[in-house]
Design brief:
Blueprint (H helix, E strand, L loop, with lengths): L1 H22 L10 H6 L3 H29 L4 H23 L3 H19 L2
Length: 122
Amino acid sequence: MGWIQGLMVAAAVLPYGAALAAKAGGRRFDNNDPRPWLAAQEGWRARANAAQANLFEGLPFFYAAVLYALHAGAQPGRLAGLMGAWVALRMLYVLAYVLGRGTVRSIIWGAALAVNLAILWA
């Protein structure tokens, strides 16, 4: 089950990567009060921050689906493959979001949702 645990950790750290992208190198970033600074951002930084929020919002369903699949006796190899696909799609989602590719981002989001449903019934 090493792959499953590793992919659960990878899913958990994805939002932090988007947050780091939103904040890194930002002018006048105030780490003592970062939320107002983030709220004032525009362009790719604002989109990276929005991607962070969406990644956090998607984690509960992902974890619930994985835990249910494990409880139901899903084959670990199949489950790990689906989880890897979900993590990869969510990484592409962040990239599309940051680059401002809204339609592509929405298609990727839908694909990730479909994979999450597949995990649930794995």
